[in-house]
Amino acid sequence: MQFGVAFLALTIVLTACTNSGNNKAAKDENSIQTSGIAIVSEGLPQIPWIASKNTTRINTDDPIQAAVLISQTLWMATSEDNRPGSVILTSVDNWQNAVLSADLINHNTGT
Questions:
Q1: pLDDT of residue 36
Q2: For all residues of the chain together, what is the average pLDDT?
Q3: d(Cα 8, Cα 6) in Å, to the nearest integer?
Q4: How far apart (Å, rounded) are the C-alpha atoms in residues 33 and 3?
Q5: Domain segments of the chain as ranges
Q6: More exposed terminus of the chain, fewer Cβ within 10 Å: N or C?
Q7: Which of 64, 48, 67 is nearest to 56 (CA)?
Q8: What angle do CA 95, 97, 100 make, to 5 degrees?
Q9: What is the CB neighbour count within 10 angstroms for residue 48?
Q10: What pTM was computed for the model?
């Protein structure tokens, strides 16, 4: 009987010590991540993209700036080894050329 009471007391103490009450893990999971890039316009910083766990929103209505931000978001070059070797440029009116050109890219491995 004394063992059961001691075990119950120990369980309550350990539970109270490990539960901080602010539920930080749930808040971190639902938090919104923003990029480290800040564009200053009229003194107010603007974030070019906002990312959550399942979505990334590009905050621009300019198609050229959107293309640049998307490429920087998807292919973040951290060194010379993982930097893209080519870029396909095409007219906004005829974007289908870019889709067809992507199949012609040669991924030369040097062998």
A1: 47
A2: 67
A3: 5
A4: 48
A5: 29-101
A6: C
A7: 48
A8: 120
A9: 19
A10: 0.35
